[in-house]
Amino acid sequence: MFATLAICLPTEHEGGELILEHAGKRQVWNSANTSAVDLSFAAWYADVTHKVKPIASGHRLVLTYNVINDAQSRINRGVLDDGGGQPAFFCHQLSHQYTEASLKLSRLVGDDYKIVCRAFSAAESVNCMLYLATFERMISGGYDEEDFDREIIDETDEYWRLQTIVDLCGE
C-alpha cells in the first residue's frame, strides 16, 4: 500500500472531518458540505498522518481503499565493480517515509519516484549503481519536564545509522 482513497457516498451528516498532516502542513477535508446531494473523495499517501473527528449528526458511508502498485520495475541488475578503489557515495533524502516492504522503485510516490528515476538514468550513464536505504536518526539532549511532547530543547549529540539498503527492486 502506498496511498489511501476514501469515497464518501451521498449520506447526509454533520461533523466527521478528516484531518491530514504531512511535513508541517495540515489539510482538513469536510465531506458534510455536499453530503446530502453528491459524493466526495480524498486521497493521501501512506506516510500522511490522518485523524477522523466524530460524526455530530446523521450517518456517513465511506468506501475506503488501500492503493497498491504491483507493477514490476524494469531495472537491469549489474554487479558493483569498483576496480579496487574506494566507492564514492551520494545521498538524497526522499520526501516521503517508506517501510522496508515499500522500499522499491515501483512503490515510490510523487516526486520521489521522478527523482529516483532521473538518478538511476544518471548513475547508469556513468556505470554506477543506485540503492535505496533507510536510516535511523538519533538525537540526545535535554527536554522540559513539563512539556508533554518531550521535544528536545538542548541537543547534545546527533548521529545517523544505516538500517536497510536495497536495490531498486527492493532486494
Key traits:
2 domains, 1 helix, 3-stranded antiparallel β-sheet, Prolyl 4-hydroxylase alpha subunit Fe(2+) 2OG dioxygenase domain-containing protein, 171 residues, flat, 10 strands, mainly beta
How do the strands and helices of this protein lay out in sequence?
Blueprint: E1 3-8, E2 13-15, E3 18-22, E4 25-29, E5 40-45, E6 49-52, E7 55-58, E8 62-67, H1 110-125, E9 132-143, E10 152-166
Organism: Cladosporium halotolerans
Protein name: Prolyl 4-hydroxylase alpha subunit Fe(2+) 2OG dioxygenase domain-containing protein
Helix content: under 10%
Give average pLDDT, whole number: 77
| Gross geometry | flat
- The radius of gyration over CA amounts to 22 Å
Number of domains: 2
Using DSSP, what is the number of strands?
A: 10
Strand order of the largest sheet: 5-1-8
* Structural class assignment: mainly beta
Please give the largest β-sheet.
3 strands, antiparallel
**Total number of helices:** 1
Instruction: Estimate the strand proportion.
Output: 35-45%
Euclidean distance between termini CA atoms:
18 Å
The residue ranges in which pLDDT falls below 50 over 5 or more consecutive positions are 71-82
Q: What is the element string, with H for helices and E for strands?
A: EEEEEEEEHEE
